[in-house]
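# step 3/5: fold
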Amino acid sequence: MDTIASLFSFITTPVSWVIVQFHSVYGSIFGPDTGWAWGLSIVSLVILIRICLIPLFVKQIKATRAMQTLQPEMKKIQERYKNDKQRQSEEMMKLYKETGTNPLSSCLPILAQSPFFFALYHVLNSIASNDTIGVINERLLESAQKAHIFGAPLAAKFTDSPDKVEALNSTLLDVRVVTAIMIILMSLSQFYTQRQLMTKNVDTTVKTPFMQQQKMLMYVFPVIFAVFGINFPVGVLVYWLTTNVWTMGQQMYVIHNNPTPGSKAQAAYLERLSKHVAKHGKTRNRRERAIVKAIVGKGRDRNEYERKFINGLNKAGLAAQADGNVIRSESSAAVQAEDGTSTATATVPKRQQPKRQSKSQRQSGTAKAAGEPMSLTKDDAPEDTKPAAKKGDAKPAGNGSTRSKAQSGQRKGPQRPKSPSKK
């Protein structure tokens, strides 16, 4: 065992013990000396580690979103104190403290996983060097050296010499083909994971330097994996490919069910949620209620997709409550029938205007069809609205409370008497 491995024996010993335990299970199924037994042991080790790191992954998501939110404020600080680096750093730390964010939180899963990756590398390197390590004794060492994955030994590398590969009962062509394919898959999975994050789960309304950095990492990380991957043993490539696939699937789940506000993924999620709520008239579970509650609590600060979601509920006759629940709105234009189908009704009946009668009906005073409102005729009109008597008729008693209508061509109102014509 080399000096570095001895210094980190507290990590390599537990990792080797976990691999041996999984190997005893898979060895009873596939055989103790097969590549399936040892390869699945490494895959199971990755899954166990990633399950333990789920709380850190959740913390990473929250930290990343908090950093995205702070980017505009950070940019203002950089522009304000661009000539004073010390003051700039102090203001940055003050901003982190006030908001409770930590830039290193987004790197926690990678940092926490690094010791296990380092321990596995030394375990496989010791197998290739024919050295015992941790709980792997000589019998298990001989069994691991016989294990091949698609013809490539677990401890073989892309850069190994032909003599070293022959000592592991394999050929250089098999080793390089298998390692090249695994390096390509590892780089592609890393690229797709980062691209998925940039194209679907980033707030498109905010353009910050952080987005440019993430876009650059989308192309840099796959190249780094490809360069360093040729120095990794096959077992380590299995480990890293498995953890990349796990990260990709885990991120797809998060993007699908808990997207970043303002991103395209949120637009797709709220559209699905709106259809489900409109169909069943309620939210499904606590997570959906929490999302609706957060949207309602934003008020006027809602983004475009959140406003569209609230308007869609209103059009469906639903109202989102402050506690996250959704109820039927009394002012809805659609109600749920007993058979489950929605029928369009009006909550307030429209006021019906009476139809205008014809001239003959008004003169004869005949009633209209049954059920239709009656209109007033000349005979039914009040006395004060009847036309004045014609010339020659008796004038009504009184001081002229009723006025005669103005004759045609004359102005309304009192007329000035004409002056007598001069003869």
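# step 4/5: annotate
The two ends are 148 Å apart (CA to CA).
# step 5/5: archive (pending)
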